[in-house]
Amino acid sequence: MKRNARDDDNNNGGEALLAKKSSLDPAAALASIRHEFGEHGGVNMSIEASATFTVMEPETMRRMFTGELGPDNDFFVYSRHFNPTVLNLSRQMAALEGTEAAYCTSSGMSAISSVMLQLCSSGGHVVASKTLYGGTHALLTHFFPRACNITTSFVDITDHEAVAEAIVEGQTQVFYFEAMANPTLTVADIPELSRIAHDKGVTVVVDNTFAPMVLSPAKLGADVVVHSISKFISGGADIIAGAVCGSEKLVKGMMDLRGGSLMLLGPTMNAKVAFELSERIPHLALRMKEHSRRAQVYAEKMKELGLKVIYPGLEDHPQHKLARRIVNKEYGYGGLLSIDMETEERANKLMTYLQNATQFGLMAVSLGYYETLMSCSGSSTSSELDPDQKEAAGISPGLVRMSVGYVGTLEQKWSQFEKAFLRM
User: Fold this and answer.
1) Which domain of life does this protein belong to (predicted)?
2) Are residues 15 and 85 in the same domain?
3) Rounded to 5 degrees, what are φ and ψ at 173?
4) 401: helix, coil or strand?
5) In this structure, are 267 and 303 located in the same domain?
6) CB of 103 within 8 A of CB of 81?
C-alpha cells in the first residue's frame, strides 16, 4: 500500500536512499545489501514500469515537491526523477564501488556528461588525462568549450609534477581520468593523483568502466566514479547504460528538481533495463575473475610468441607494481589487453585471420562480452583524436585493443589464436 504522508512522520526505519560506503570486498559488499523481493514474494524484484506515481492525499504531493518526502522513505513522483527499480540497481552500484550513493543513467556518456555539468560551471576548468575514450575526449575538447564555456587541459597522468602544475587552484573544478586508460591500459595512481587534486580543492572523477571489481577508485581516494554499464557489468553486449557513484549529496544534487543535471537533462534509465542489469550484477565477480584469468594467460603466451603485448598483469608493464598494490585481490588485472602491431595494415590482417579463419574473436567495438572483441583503436574508438593527440596518448596506428572473452575452453581458444598468428 502507498504510505500516507502522516505515516512518514513516525517512520524512522525506512529504506536508506542508497547503499552506504563499505570497506568490504566488492562481492561481499554486494551480498551485504538488502535483497529486493517481488511484490508477491518472488525471489526477483518486481519491475516498476510506471512513469508517474499516485498519492493518497494532495498534501503528500506538495511535500514531495518541496523535498520533505522522497524515495528514501518510498515516496516517488515521476520516473525521470527516481524510479524504484532503477533505485535498486543504483544501490547495487553504490555497494559495488563502495560509495554512499549512486544513480543509473541511459548510457555511459550521459553519466559522464551529467556529472561534469553538475560539478563544473560556465568559465570552469578541467584537468584530464591525455589518454581517454574518444567520446570523452571529444566531449571535453569540442563540446564543452563551445556549448558550456568549460575548458580542459590534458596531461600525462603518470607525470605527477605535470598534473600538479596543470591544476589551477581556485579555477580548476574537476580532475578527470580513467582507472585503466582506454586503450593503452595505463594504470592510474589513484591515491597519489587524488591527494594532489584534493590539496588544491579539486574534485576527482574516475571512469572505472575497464576495471569493475578489479579496482575500487572511491576506496583509493576518488570522489566520483562513473561507469558505462554497457560493458563488463552488463556482459551481454545488448544494453546501453551508465552510472554515477559518489556522495549522497552529489546524487541528490544531480536529481534536484530545480538544479540537478540528471533530473533536468533527463538521461533516464528504463526500469526494464534496470531489472535486467540487477540480475547480472550478482555474477559479475565470477565473470571478472575469468576474464582476468584468461587475459593473463593469453598475454603471457602472446609475449612468448614475440608480440608486443600491453597488460597490467605482466611484470614489464610500466605500472605493474602499482597495479599489484592497488587492485582488489582475487580479481586479477582485468579482462583487456592490447597488442601493438605497429601498423594499421598488420593490425587489420591479424584481426581478419582471428575472426574469419580461426574464429578466435569478433571484430567489434565495446568490451566485456563473453566472446572476445577486438578493434584497431586508432581508427575506431579513438578516432576522435587527431594524429598528434593519438601520439601524445601513446596510441600506435597498429594498436589492437582486445577484450578477452570466456566462451569455450582456454586451450581451445588459445589454439585458435596461435593458428591465426602462425598463418599470418
Assistant:
1) Eukaryota
2) yes
3) -105, -30
4) strand
5) no
6) no
Confidence bin at 23 (pLDDT 50/70/90): low
Q: Judge contact between 191 and 269, C-beta under 8 A.
A: no
Give the end of a domain, one of 251, 282, 313: 282
Chain-centre distance for alpha carbon 54 = 34
Range of the domain at 115: 5-120+190-204+214-282
Query: What 3-state DSSP class applies to 273?
Result: helix
Nearest 5°: the CA angle 297, 314, 224 is 105
For residue range 235-258, what is the model confidence (pLDDT) as tens digits? 999 999 999 999 999 999 999 999
Longest dimension (CA), the chain: 74
Give yes or no for residue 129 having a pLDDT over 70: yes
- Please report which confidence band the pLDDT of residue 15 belongs to, taking 50, 70 and 90 as the band edges: very low
> Do 288 and 324 sit in the same domain of this protein?
yes
- Cα separation, 406 vs 324, in Å, equals 23
* Model pLDDT for residues 299-333, shown as the tens digit of each residue: 999 999 999 999 999 999 999 999 999 999 999 99
Domain CATH for 273: 3.40.640.10
Among 234, 250, 282, the domain boundary falls at 282
Q: Which three cell numbers stand for residue 320?
A: 605493474
Residue for cell digits 607525470?
Answer: 159
Query: What pLDDT digit, counting tens, does each position of 179-220 carry?
Result: 999 999 999 999 999 999 999 999 999 999 999 999 999 999
- What is the spatial distance between Cα 228 and Cα 133, in angstroms, rounded to a whole number? 11
**Amino acid 389: pLDDT:** 83
Sequence-distant (6+) residues with CB within 8 A of 410 are 293, 294, 297
What is the CATH classification number for the domain harbouring 388? 3.90.1150.10
